[in-house]
Amino acid sequence: MSARRPTLAVVGATGAVGTVMLDILSTREDVWGEIRLVASPRSAGKRLTVRGEEVEVQALAPEVFDGVDVAMFDVPDEVSKQWAPVAVERGAVAVDNSGAYRMDPDVPLVVPEVNADQTRNRPRGIISNPNCTTLSMIVAMGALHRAYGLASLVVASYQAASGSGQEGIDTLHDQIEKAATDRTLGSRAGDVRAAVGEQGPFPAPLALNVVPWAGSLKEDGYASEELKVRNESRKILGMPDLPVAATCVRVPVVTTHSLVVHASFETEVSADRAREVLASAPGVVVQDDPARGEFPTPADVVGTDPTWVGRIRRSLDDPASLELFMCGDNLRKGAALNTAQIAEVVAEEFAGS
C-alpha cells in the first residue's frame, strides 16, 4: 500500500513569511497531498500560486482545519494563541512560527538539524519554530556542540530591517532615499536623525547608522531579542543552564541576519577541525578564506537556505574557545524554511498510514 500524502494548511499565506513559504513549498521535495492556503477574512478569495497551481485563499475559521494533518502558522502571536489549539482540536499538528509557544514546557522548540527527535514530544499537539536570530546560528552551534561539548556562548547580532516586518523594510528604504541626497550626512551629531525624519519601528535612524536595540524592553535592561537568543538556545540544545550573553544590534541591511559568536567548549578546539565539522554539517556552508576576501556577508547570501560560517578562529586567549561570523536569511531558514522542515518531519509519520 502506498503511503498517504498528508494534507497541509498554511495559515498566514499572504504575509511576508507566508509568501516565502509558498516558494519553499514549490521548490522542495513535494511530500504533501492537498495544500490549503488560509489567511484573514480580508484576504479570502485571493488566488496564490503554489506548486505551479493557483489556489484560492480561504478565510481563517475552524472548519478550514477539517481533514488537515499539519497546519503551519505564520501569523502574529495572538492569532497563534487563538487558532493553533483550534487546529489541534480539529485533528492537525500545529507548527507555529510565532513566539506564542516557544518557551512552553509542553511545546517542543525544534530545529530539525539539531533536535528533530523532539517533534514527537508534543503533548499539546503544537511544535514551535525558534526566533530568526537564534536560527541564524543554532544549526552551526549544534554541530560544534556535538563535536566539542558547548560550555558557553557570547553573541552579538547584526539584524536586518526585515526582522521588523514590512514596516522595517519600508522605513530603511525611505531613510536611505532621503540620506542619499546629502553626502555630508554623518559628519555632525544628529544630522542623520534630522534628515531622515520618521524612525518607523526603530528607536534611532537605521540608514547610515547601527542601532543597539531589537525587540522590546525586558527586565534589567535586556531587549526581548537578546533573551530569545539565550532562552531558545538553551531549550533547543537541551542545556537549561548554558551561559549565554547576547547583544542584539539592528543594521541597515534589508534581509539576512549576521552574528559574531564567541563559543567556549568543554575540550580544546582546533580551527581546522571546526571547519571540517561545520563543512560536513547539514544546512551549513563554510566560506572562510580571509586572504582572498572570502567570508559570508548578508548581501551575498540573502535568498539562500544554509547558515553561512566564516572567520573561524581559535581564541587567542583560550584554546577551548572559537570565534566565528555567521549569516542566515531571516525570512528563509530564520522563519519559513525551518517551519517547512519541521512540517516535513511530521509528514514522515504518515508514511505508513
From TrEMBL:
**Could you tell me what reaction this enzyme catalyses?**
L-aspartate 4-semialdehyde + phosphate + NADP(+) = 4-phospho-L-aspartate + NADPH + H(+)
Molecular function GO labels: aspartate-semialdehyde dehydrogenase activity; NAD binding; NADP binding; protein dimerization activity
Q: Which InterPro entries match?
A: Asp_semialdehyde_DH (IPR012080), Asp_semialdehyde_DH_beta (IPR005986), NAD(P)-bd_dom_sf (IPR036291), Semialdehyde_DH_NAD-bd (IPR000534), Semialdhyde_DH_dimer_dom (IPR012280)
Pathway listed: Amino-acid biosynthesis; L-lysine biosynthesis via DAP pathway; (S)-tetrahydrodipicolinate from L-aspartate: step 2/4; Amino-acid biosynthesis; L-threonine biosynthesis; L-threonine from L-aspartate: step 2/5; Amino-acid biosynthesis; L-methionine biosynthesis via de novo pathway; L-homoserine from L-aspartate: step 2/3
Annotated NCBIfam families: asd_B, PRK14874.1
What family does the database annotate? Belongs to the aspartate-semialdehyde dehydrogenase family.
- HAMAP family attached to this UniProt entry: ASADH
Record's keyword terms, sorted: Amino-acid biosynthesis, Diaminopimelate biosynthesis, Lysine biosynthesis, Methionine biosynthesis, NADP, Oxidoreductase, Threonine biosynthesis
Q: What does this protein do?
A: Catalyzes the NADPH-dependent formation of L-aspartate-semialdehyde (L-ASA) by the reductive dephosphorylation of L-aspartyl-4-phosphate.
**Annotated coiled-coil segments of the chain:** none
Show the PANTHER family listed in the entry: ASPARTATE-SEMIALDEHYDE DEHYDROGENASE (PTHR46278:SF2), DEHYDROGENASE, PUTATIVE-RELATED (PTHR46278)
Q: Which organism is it from?
A: Streptomonospora alba
Record carries keyword Oxidoreductase: yes
Stored SUPFAM superfamilies: Glyceraldehyde-3-phosphate dehydrogenase-like, C-terminal domain, NAD(P)-binding Rossmann-fold domains
The record places the active site at C132 (acyl-thioester intermediate), H257 (proton acceptor)
Could you tell me the EC number(s) of this protein?
Answer: 1.2.1.11
Give binding positions for phosphate. Answer: R102
Specify the protein name.
Aspartate-semialdehyde dehydrogenase
Top enzyme class, one word, equals oxidoreductase
Q: Where is substrate bound in this sequence?
A: Q159, R250
> In which domain of life is the source organism classified?
Bacteria
Ranges for domain Semialdehyde dehydrogenase NAD-binding come to 7-122
Binding-site positions, NADP(+): T14, G15, A16, V17, R42, S43, S162, G163, N330
| Subunit record text | Homodimer.
Write out the GO biological process terms: 'de novo' L-methionine biosynthetic process; diaminopimelate biosynthetic process; isoleucine biosynthetic process; lysine biosynthetic process via diaminopimelate; threonine biosynthetic process
